Amino acid sequence: MEIITTIFTNAFYVLVFPGLLFVAIVGLLLAGIDRKVLARMQKRVGPPLIQPFYDFFKLMGKETIIPHAANRRVFLAAPVVGFVSLVVMMLFIPIFGFSPLSTNADLIILLYLLTIPAVALIVGGSASGSPYAGIGISREMVTMMAYELPLVIVLLTVARKVGGSTLCFSLSEISLFQQAEGSLITNWSLIPAAIAMLLVIPAEVGTQPFDVAEAETEICEGPLVEYSGAPLAIFKLNTAIKMFIMTALFTVLFFGGIDTGFIALNALVLVAICAVLTVICMTLIHAICARLKIEHLFKFYWTVVTVLAAISLILVWLGL
Amino acid sequence: MFKKVIAKSMAKSPWIYHVNTGSCNGCDIELVAVLTPRYDAERFGFKLAGTPRHADIVVVSGPITSQSKERLIRTLEQVPEPKCVVSIGSCPRSCNVFKGSYSVEGPLENFTHVDVSIAGCTPKPEAIIEGLYKAAEILAEKREAMNK
Fold first, then answer.
1. Which of A268, A309, B93, B147 could be A196's S-S partner, Cβ–Cβ 3.0 to 4.6 Å?
2. Do A65 and B51 touch (CB under 8 A)?
3. Closest residue, chain A, to B36 (C-alpha)
């Protein structure tokens, strides 16, 4: 009997909350907020808030074409692999204390899982056998290298701040620490790291100024150029979920320690904070910036953003 | 239930792919005007797709020239079903002033089924939006027909 209950609760965690259904709905909602607010910033009416849901269901109903040059299995498996890794990632991110999977090395697992959707995009693009996808995946790889370094430094900074010399990689302990000592964003020595993290989010998600890999007007959405129908729908869903995962990770690292006592209310607060973060770090930059060149993107991340993160790391290591 | 949701979504999120088959660029500019903040076709879910694989509606402008005929047919083959073909302006309807030229192959309907034809030289952005909206509704009907 106990086994059945365990299986049932775990299935609930993976499929409904905080797994598949929850991330999909919130991710698509955040994408909708992004598009609506962007439209309002450009003095347009903009699409309805649930436009990404329409897009998703429409793509689900379209024919799936597999090109002759493509490797059929890899071509179809790539989006699903990316999607599964994103759902697993959400199980590690605590919603203000509630986290179904919690280990001593959450941050390291997350770091590895975060690369999988990008690698899935690279693998899927290269399996499609299109020259546009070839350009797209080489750019995606450079983008990955660019944002990975500052991201690692930010995570290391937080780990050192919370765990002292032993380094704490557990997200639930980071949450508990913030409950006791106040949110980490209030700590002045961590503010450069927070700004660096905010700049990493749009590159990780792939929104406008940093969407060199999927440049629509230039290389026709790069790795996605040959995709149609359901696989394309899952790739679009992946992008939307990444928005939620990255902003939720930021919330856990820097705004942790908010606890209203109810899981549902906590989840609502998380979604609200994620929506605000989406508008600040994705929509705002999208509205005011044109797309960067790939070499400028690389230079920007390895100079400005890395230095910001490194300043925090040094300050924290000095004990400030 | 899913089939109903999908059919409804078809009408709400049509992505456009634009093929210029020898147009004078007038209709192309008007189509771009439809997507600008003044007319904002995105409020109906319209989006310009970069590749025919992502498209639902193929917009053709211009009389079909000998050079573009083959490319047009190949492009139309790459669009996943259900799809709609919309012609913009007088050129794809009747070849307009280019009729009789040695390099013009004739109106669009000789090569493919045209779902919506928007007349005018060039049509107003309002007319284009109305035409595209009708095409989106046809798209939903085609999806429902696929279920049966």
1. A309
2. no
3. A44
**Cβ contact B45–A54 (<8 Å):** yes
Distance between CA A100 and CA A18 in Å, rounded?
A: 8
B81·A63 Cβ contact <8 A:
yes
Beta strands, E only, chain A: none
**CB atoms closer than 10 angstroms to residue A138:** 16
Cα gap A162→A156, rounded to integer Å: 10
pTM: 0.87
Pairing of strands B57-61, B15-20: parallel
Give B89 to chain A, closest Cα distance, Å.
24
Architecture of domain B2-147: 3-Layer(aba) Sandwich (3.40)
The terminus-to-terminus CA distance of chain B in angstroms comes to 14
Of residues A285, A271, A119, A268, the one with CA closest to residue A198 = A285
Chain A residues in contact with B45 by the CB 8 A cut-off are 47-48, 51, 54-55
